[in-house]
Specification:
alpha/beta; Rossmann fold; 5-stranded parallel beta sheet; two-stranded antiparallel ribbon
């Protein structure tokens, strides 16, 4: 087969990813996309995770710091939070503890570039759904977000 023939040959299509979690009151109801908040001081991380989740139908809100997300009342009704541990000013676990102290019970995924036993212990004490060490597989993050956003 020549290079020309190989280039013209139909290529198999990649499988379409399953849709994002949706909420609704039952058959025929208007469904709403699950809302995920991303809190990370690294703009490239916020942007890439936002694009990934939005492409799968999630509604995404981003914030660059713990203080910024705490000032946004909408985070208290989010379906899932993805929070970086190592941020200037207020780290991820302190941010999550402040949210809990304000009465918010939102499933959270902690991401970190440096995982140590103390972080894992504190995360477990706060009821964090999962701790992911960077770099992590997008499929693993999506699995955790989907599990966190399923209606009970």
């Amino acid at each position: 087969m020549t290079a020309y023939e190989a280039a013209r040959r139909p290529r198999p299509q990649a499988p379409t990813p399953p849709p994002a979690a949706k909420f609704g009151d039952g058959p025929g109801s208007r469904q709403q996309a699950a809302t995920v908040f991303i809190v990370d001081d690294d703009e490239s991380v916020r942007d890439s995770l936002s694009v990934l989740l939005e492409s799968l139908g999630f509604e995404v809100m981003t914030h660059a710091s713990g203080r910024e997300v705490l000032a946004d009342d909408r985070c208290r009704t989010a379906d899932c939070l993805i929070v970086d541990q190592h941020m200037p000013g207020m780290d991820g676990l302190t941010t999550l503890a402040a949210l809990q102290g304000a009465g918010a019970a939102v499933p959270a995924i902690l991401i970190t570039g440096r995982l140590d036993p103390e972080i894992a212990t504190r995360a477990a004490q706060l009821g964090v759904s999962a701790v992911l060490e960077k770099p992590f597989a997008a499929t693993k993050l999506l699995e955790l977000v989907r599990a966190s956003t399923k209606p009970e």
